[in-house]
Amino acid sequence: MSDWVEACRVGEIDEEDVMRFDHAGRTFAIYRSPDDDYFATDGLCTHEKVHLADGLVMDDIIECPKHNGRFNYKTGAARGAPVCVNLKTYPVKVEAGAVMIQIG
Amino acid sequence: MRAGMVIVGAGECGGRAALALRELGFDRPVTLVGDEPHLPYERPPLSKEAMTGEAPAIKAIASDELLAERSIRHIHSVQVVAIDRATHEVRLSDGSSLPYEKLLLATGSTPRRLPMPGLGARCVYLRTFNDALAIRAHLRAGNRVAIIGGGFIGLELAAAARKFAADVTVIEAQPRILMRGVPAEIAAIIHQAHEAEGVRVLTGQGIATIADDGAEVRITLADAREVVADLAVIGIGAVPVTALAAEAGLTIDNGIAVDAGLRTSDPDIFAAGDCCSFPLAVYGGRRVRLEAWRNAQEQGALAARNMLGAGEAHIAVPWFWSDQYGLTLQIAGLSDEGRSVVRRDLGDGAFILFHLAEDGRLVAASGIGPGNAVARDIRLAEMLIAKRATPDREALGSQAFKLKSLLAA
Fold first, then answer.
1. d(C-alpha B307, C-alpha B22), whole Å
2. Which residues pair with A100 in a beta bridge?
3. Within 13 Å, how many C-alpha atoms sit on residue B21's CB side?
4. What percent of chain B has pLDDT over 90?
5. Residue A51 has what pLDDT?
6. Which residues in chain A have Cβ-Cβ distances shorter than 8 Å to B16?
7. What is the CATH number of domain B113-234?
8. Where are the domains of chain B?
9. Nearest CA in chain A to B16
């Protein structure tokens, strides 16, 4: 499967920030890193299914708005209590001003 | 038997400490002793999801498999009855003993008892999962639930009970709900939300008498009004569990007194979480005791590091949240340190109050709003508080101004 969908336009997300993207009944979080790369993960925290897009991005970390669970949004790796399950990540490419993610 | 680390109390704090000891590479025995029959579990859901979810279940911090894989011995349903500091042993209620190199007391807190005659089987408290199950059994349409105490546990429980269409009355002796630690402006919004959802909130009402005949509870208020309920839940605060420490001769000061590194007056015994009072660095060493989930988690992990000799000080800013209906409240820092307030509106009725000290230092932030509307800015405020920042009042008050940019300053 190689389902590429447009998540947002380039520049719609501030640097070092995150945006929620819903598609076909699923929810994702799209990130723009401080060095201006784009990344995508599942939208919900693995601890209690909270939307990560309400959380804070600091460098390459997204912090859950509810209980401060931390993940590296580039790799999906859980970074300490209370989260212990990694976050699923998705390939991202920028094409003609669009941020595309491969939701597969 | 080789001595190792013994942790008394298998809640959030004790559970996190045990896992942290293994993550740090400690390879001698780690024993976690708890008086409940369950695995270490998260308590915050007990007044929230565990009450309203389909099938209530504990949210375990570690499964049996994980504990086995990490060689953490979990002794459950047993109490530690004595500490022998001279021989470095603890005695358990089943008659056995455990030797320790270092001991962590994570004994938590217990609901403050209502010092009145007349309480019976229908007057209950909420602390454990089993308490939660017992309360839940009474939550159904039309059943009358009286909640004594307008604090967080009582109010979250009131919200949960309304989901079952129970008939709910909250009785608070103070002039308003959430007197301790929550600004009046925010408490008023929570008060209104409860009334809008059909909860009767009676403030400024002391209780004259309680009569529980086993079938119903008859509560007579100071003004002679009567509240009759099928169940009364008492939520008037918590007290630290310190008897074990006190009997062992450790210093007690509104909790088991520890230093910034969570060490008690005995260098081989640490205490962490709800049961301990500690100096809070961010407020110049003011001694506090916190009853909060994140504090339990962080201090459990810090105690583990210091039991292994790290010598680190606890420097975190207190942080707390509550969910009621669709509203979430978050508070970073202790608002009573503040002398003036700046309000920041975030839209959708969400707002944050920034509490500033006399010298302009940001000392706390209290926010409320739908969903997680205040989460980001409260988190940024927490970092500013930790940095002892003196942010510009106008910047704090304007939504157009990004708090994140203050951090770099």
1. 12
2. A6, A93
3. 29
4. 94
5. 95
6. 81
7. 3.50.50.60
8. 4-110+238-307, 113-234, 326-408
9. A81
Q: Give residues with Cβ within 8 angstroms of B284, minimum separation 6.
A: none
Mean pLDDT score of chain A: 93
Q: Which pLDDT score, from 0 to 100, does residue A1 have? A: 54
Element spanning B44, H or E = none
Nearest chain A residue to B297 by CA distance is A81
Other Cβ atoms within 10 Å of A93 Cβ, number: 11
A and B: number of Cβ contacts within 8 A: 38
What fold, for B4-110+238-307?
FAD/NAD(P)-binding domain (3.50.50)
- C-alpha B168/C-alpha B159 separation (Å) is 9
Answer whether the bond into residue A82 is a cis peptide, omega within 30°.
Answer: yes
Interface of chain A toward chain B, CB-CB under 8 angstroms: 16, 50-51, 54-56, 63, 65-68, 81-82
Question: Low-confidence residues of chain B, pLDDT below 70?
Answer: 1, 409
Please give the span between the terminal C-alpha atoms of chain A, in angstroms, as a whole number: 5
Residue A6 has pLDDT above 70, yes or no: yes
Report the residue of B21, B61, B372 to disrupt the A interface, i.e. the one with the largest count of A CBs within 10 Å. B372
Task: Give the whole-angstrom CA distance, residue B11 versus residue B67.
Answer: 14
Q: Give contacts of A68 with chain B, Cβ < 8 Å.
A: 294, 319, 379
Whether residues B375 and A16 touch (CB distance < 8 A) is answered with: no
Token look-up 């640490």 returns: B270
Tokens of A82: 């209370």
User: What does the pLDDT read at residue A68?
Assistant: 86
- pLDDT in the model for residue A49: 85
What is the ipTM score, two decimals? Answer: 0.89
Residues of B with Cβ-Cβ distance to A50 under 8 angstroms: 372
Q: For B142-159, how does the pLDDT look when each residue is reduced to its tens digit (9 = 90+)?
A: 999 999 999 999 999 999
What CATH fold (topology level) applies to the domain B326-408? Answer: Enolase-like; domain 1 (3.30.390)
CATH code of the domain occupying A4-102: 2.102.10.10
Q: Would the CB atoms of B372 and A66 count as touching at under 8 Å?
A: yes
Q: Are A40 and A29 in contact (CB under 8 A)?
A: yes
pTM of the predicted protein model: 0.93
- B235 closest CA partner among B347, B167, B148: B148
Q: What is the pLDDT of residue B314?
A: 94
